[in-house]
Design brief:
The protein has about 270 residues and is an alpha/beta fold. The protein folds into two domains: about 1-205, Alpha-Beta Complex (Spore Coat Polysaccharide Biosynthesis Protein SpsA, Chain A), CATH 3.90.550; about 210-269, no CATH class. It contains eleven helices and nine strands. It has helices at about 15-30, 45-55, 75-85, 100-110, 145-150, 165-170, 180-190, 210-215, 220-230, 240-250, 255-265, and strands at about 1-10, 35-40, 60-65, 90, 95-100, 115-125, 135, 160-165, 195-205. Strands 1, 2, 3, 4, 5, 6, 7, 8 and 9 form a nine-stranded mixed sheet that branches. A hairpin with a 6-residue loop joins strand 6 (about 115-125) and strand 7. Helix 1 (about 15-30) runs parallel beside helix 2 (about 45-55). Keywords: Glycosyltransferase, Transferase.
């Protein structure tokens, strides 16, 4: 049976076709299936990626949203969100594995708690195989979300479910490289929407050196500065405690990969 919720993904040409295939399979094997899967093509894809999409179009209610040029994750997700016909939307990444009951748990929670705007969860992290978990990336629960958000992202983006109308109300995803999600959560909290994390694991997320490398560079520094400015101009309590944390985060973006890997491991524990 297909339920009234959407799954939103964005794909671009550098994605691994085998990882993408596994991600779509993890959607197909859910205990609750969506009635639409929105896949945003963020620019032209490889023939291997097109083949994966063609394969799964026969099995899943896929709707392709095709962008002529690569626009970046924030813009791509915002365009895809506009095409979602349901208010309840599951975010999913194209290289991660959704555990079989993820959609059922989050759909039931959102329908039973209409006052909640967004719910996330802990995630497993793996490198070569999703059967070999190297750690669990835990997220804050309850009131700890507001405390943590001034220091770091309190949600695992690939594991969130949210209400489209509330996301649209705060302007949706914005073009802030590498921090599109974090920026969105801050704007939601600043408008007093209710955001929660479920104390369970719903996704297995792929990690590795490529992910660490993406967390470096001048674009990341600019995004960190934008985030800090927003926090300091927000209505969050004790917002100035963010300054030392973001100063360290900005410094880490220009460090060598092996040092950044160690810092990232410490920060997420």
């Amino acid at each position: 049976m297909n339920y009234n919720f959407s799954v939103l993904l964005s794909i671009y040409y550098k994605e691994n076709s085998q990882f993408f295939d596994a991600a779509l399979n993890s959607i197909y094997t859910q205990t609750y299936l969506p009635n639409e899967v929105i896949i945003v093509h963020d620019g032209k894809l490889t023939s291997e990626l097109y083949s994966v999409i063609e394969k799964w179009e026969a099995l899943l209610p896929i709707q392709n949203v095709i962008l002529d040029n690569n626009c970046g994750l924030g813009i791509a997700l915002n365009i895809g969100l506009e095409q979602c016909s349901n208010d309840i939307v599951m975010r999913a990444d194209t290289d991660d594995i959704n555990l079989p009951n993820r959609f059922e748990i989050q759909y039931k929670y959102m329908t039973q708690n209409p006052e909640i705007t967004l719910c996330g969860s802990h995630v497993n992290e793996f490198e070569a195989s999703s059967d070999e978990i190297i750690r669990v990336k835990k997220v804050p629960i309850g009131d700890n979300i507001v405390k943590v958000i001034k220091k770091r992202n309190p949600f695992n983006h690939m594991a969130v479910c949210f209400r489209k109308k509330h996301i649209i109300n705060v302007g949706g995803y914005m073009d802030l490289p590498y921090m599109e999600d974090y920026y969105l959560w801050l704007r939601l909290l600043n408008k007093n929407y209710n955001l929660v994390n479920l104390d369970t694991i719903l996704v297995s997320a792929r990690v590795g050196e490529a992910m660490i490398n993406r967390r470096k560079g001048f674009k990341y520094v600019k995004s960190e500065i934008t985030m800090l400015k927003y926090i300091l101009n927000s209505d969050l309590e004790k917002k100035y405690t963010s300054i030392p944390y973001f100063s360290l985060r900005i410094l880490s973006r220009i460090l060598p990969t092996y040092l950044l890997s160690k810092i990232y491991s410490k920060l997420r524990n």
